Amino acid sequence: MESAAPTKNAPRVETLGQLVGQFAHDLNNQLAIALASVELATRVDDRDKARQLLTRAVEAIERQRVLLEAMANASAASARPEVCDVHALLEEARMRTPGRIVVKPAAADARVLCDRAFLRDALAHLCGHEPGDGVLTIETSNGFARPSGRGASLVLLVAPVMPPGRVAERAFAPFGDEDNERRLGFAQIHDTVRRIGGRADFEPFTDEACGLRLVLPLAAAVP
Q1: What is the CA radius of gyration of the chain?
Q2: What is the pLDDT of residues 156-168, one digit of tens each?
Q3: Where are the alpha helices (DSSP H) in the chain?
Q4: CA 157, CA 38: separation in Å to the nearest integer?
Q5: pLDDT in tens, 84-126
Q6: Of 149, 143, 155, 148, the residue nearest 201 (C-alpha)
Q7: Under 8 Å CB-to-CB from 122, ≥6 apart: which residues?
């Protein structure tokens, strides 16, 4: 019986691989069109021709956006929300990286409704971040998910994650910085938090560093 499972699921895995490959192929094609159009537009002297090329680049980028949105919707549709204990997941991450993470679990309730795999990946990105002194502090507390003060939440303050001189508003964008790996990590964290109705922002931690503040609705507060 156990040996039959891989054979039974093989067609689904193959189909998923084909879909992912097609998405990647389409995105690569549109990116090539956008890059080539912009490059040509910088070389031509005819303003009308340059405008046509830039319009073509914008259209290719728009098609990329549509494809990425479709991928995000497909990913969201495949999510399997369940009640997850964030304290337990943080402890798992701490055990995997001993000496690099200090967890201060002050929250009385740390249970959120989320796809466990998504949340584990987001926390792994947090714990994999390399702070300046090599030690990352993650403190939890309970607060409110909305400014109105209604809806209990779990608050995570993670610090230090970024020098204060960095543009925090752009830190959640996946591209556009030389430190792409870190940006992709922050983008994944932001996307996971947004999906479950939470929010993420940066706040001063010390004069030399900023912290990442995550506000996640508690499972008990989710209708």
Answers
A1: 21
A2: 988 888 766 555 5
A3: 4-41, 47-77, 86-96, 116-128, 180-195
A4: 41
A5: 999 999 998 888 877 788 899 999 999 998 888 888 888 877 7
A6: 155
A7: 188, 189, 192, 193
